[in-house]
Amino acid sequence: MDLQKGIPRPEVPKEEIVEAYTKCCLCGSDLTYSYSTDYMNFKVTEQATCPSCGVKNRTHDYVIN
Ligand SMILES: [Zn+2]
Predict the structure, then answer these.
(1) Which residues contact 59 (CB under 8 A, 6 or more apart)?
(2) What pLDDT sits at residue 12?
(3) Looking at the predicted structure, is the pLDDT value of residue 11 above 70?
(4) How far is the CA of 31 from the centre of ligand 1 (A)?
(5) How far is C-alpha 13 from the chain's CA centre?
(6) What spacing in Å lies between the alpha carbon of 54 and ligand 1's midpoint?
(7) Distance, CA 58 to ligand 1 centroid (Å)?
């Protein structure tokens, strides 16, 4: 084993990552994103909702600097 080469990373096509991020994991519909901004805490909350099955599957908090 050649340690100089490091750990090989699996090649994941960018399209696949984008699709996983924008499509519903259950029905494959396009997700709609809603953002709520909390100016008091300098925070933006992102939520992905599926319009077809109503799954809310992703929430991210972003801190505004
Ligand atoms: Zn869905």
Answers:
(1) 45, 46, 47, 48
(2) 79
(3) yes
(4) 8
(5) 16
(6) 6
(7) 12
Output the CA 38–ligand 1 centroid distance in Å.
27
Look at residue 50 in the predicted model and tell me its pLDDT.
92
Joined together, the tokens standing for residue 40 give 């008091």
Distances (CA, A) of 7 to 3, 13, 17: 8, 18, 21
Residue ranges of domains in the chain: 29-65
Please name which of 16, 51, 9, 15 lies closest in space to residue 30, comparing C-alpha atoms. 51
Give 25-32's long-range contacts (Cβ < 8 A, gap of 24+): 25/55, 25/57, 26/50, 26/53, 26/55, 27/52, 27/53, 29/53, 31/57, 31/58
pTM: 0.54
| Residues 21-38: tens digit of each pLDDT | 788 888 999 999 889 999
